[in-house]
């Protein structure tokens, strides 16, 4: 469900704006997975959409980043590119932060918090981009939405029921 929301937001933004979309991921593997999914948009759009990636493991060239409409990257890569003032960073109009609940994580949260703070306050010298935070497991969504100055959209709908279980002695106990 979260990927569908991100895809629709990307398509909507690109159809109306000339600015870039950034998709933030806390993990390299997740960023690579989303890059492959969003890369399919290039074939659907007849090459009107260009997707680039920055994870440390997989990096697009500077030209690819400049030409891209969508840049998929890890939080740490975003932080580094903002710190070095890369030109493409000033063209961001929409940020989609996946697994935004990790902002509360003691090891990964501070980096994400700094990125979002700089973006939402216009620290980059441009109008602040729109921010979409995605999470399936967030407890303080009201506080986070207020801090980001975002509208909170919640849904309890689950296509597959969530069941908690413990596996012990070759037995699953719910």
Architecture overview:
With 174 residues, the protein is of the alpha/beta class. The chain is 39% helix and 19% strand. The protein has six helices and seven strands. The strands form two sheets. Strands 2-3-1-4-5 form a five-stranded parallel β-sheet. Strands 6-7 form a two-stranded antiparallel sheet. Helix 5 links the parallel strand 4 and strand 5 (130-134). Helix 4 (75-83) packs across helix 5 (109-120). It is globular and about 55 Å long.
Care to give the gist of this entry?
The chain is α/β, with parallel strands linked by helices and 174 residues long. The chain contains six helices and seven strands, in the order αβαβαβαβαβαββ.
Describe how the helices and strands are arranged:
Elements: H1 2-16, E1 20-25, H2 28-44, E2 51-54, H3 62-67, E3 70-74, H4 75-83, E4 92-98, H5 109-120, E5 130-134, H6 141-148, E6 166-168, E7 171-173
Parallel strand pairs: 1-3, 1-4, 2-3, 4-5
Antiparallel strand pairs: 6-7
Distance between the termini: 25 Å
Q: Tell me, briefly, the overall form.
A: globular
| Helix and strand element order | HEHEHEHEHEHEE
Q: Which parts are unreliable, with pLDDT below 50 for 5 consecutive residues or more? A: none
Helical amount among residues, as a percent range?
25-40%
Query: What summary fits the major beta sheet?
Result: 5 strands, parallel
Helix and strand content put the structural class at alpha/beta
Strand content: 15-25%
Q: How many H/I helical runs?
A: 6
Strand adjacency order, main sheet:
2-3-1-4-5
pLDDT averaged residue by residue: 85
Query: What is the quaternary state of this protein?
Result: single chain
User: How many β-strand runs?
Assistant: 7
**Radius of gyration, in angstroms, nearest whole number:** 17 Å
């Amino acid at each position: 469900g979260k990927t569908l929301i991100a895809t629709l937001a990307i398509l909507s933004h690109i159809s109306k704006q000339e600015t870039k979309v950034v998709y933030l991921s806390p993990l390299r593997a997740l960023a690579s997975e989303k890059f492959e999914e969003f890369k399919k948009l290039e074939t659907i759009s007849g090459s009107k959409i260009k997707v680039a990636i920055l994870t440390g493991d997989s990096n697009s060239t500077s030209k690819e980043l400049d030409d891209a409409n969508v840049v998929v990257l890890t939080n740490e890569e975003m932080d580094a590119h903002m710190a070095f003032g890369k030109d493409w960073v000033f063209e961001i109009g929409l940020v989609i932060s996946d697994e935004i609940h990790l902002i509360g994580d003691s090891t990964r949260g501070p980096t994400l918090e700094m990125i979002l703070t700089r973006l939402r306050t216009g620290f980059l010298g441009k109008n602040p981009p729109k921010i979409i935070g995605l999470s399936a497991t967030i407890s303080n969504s009201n506080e986070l939405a207020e801090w980001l100055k975002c509208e909170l959209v919640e849904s309890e709908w689950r296509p597959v029921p969530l069941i908690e279980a413990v596996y012990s002695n070759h037995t699953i106990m719910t």
